[in-house]
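User: What would this chain look like folded?
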Amino acid sequence: MNLLLNSIRVNFVFCLIIYGIFALLSSTLDPSLWTWYMKTLWEMLTGLLILISTVLYFVVRE
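Assistant: Here's the prediction, encoded as structure tokens.
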């Protein structure tokens, strides 16, 4: 259980770092790219969080 939580935490931090890098790059390059990246990455992060919470729910329930 601890290993699962640690790997989830690492994945989440990794996603946030990538999100931040894309945000910095695209906001300096092109505002239209920024909105596209932001929308796409936000959807990916939301999907990841839903997936993680579902997995955790089933793991904790058992």
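The radius of gyration is 15 Å. If you want, I can go into more detail on any region.
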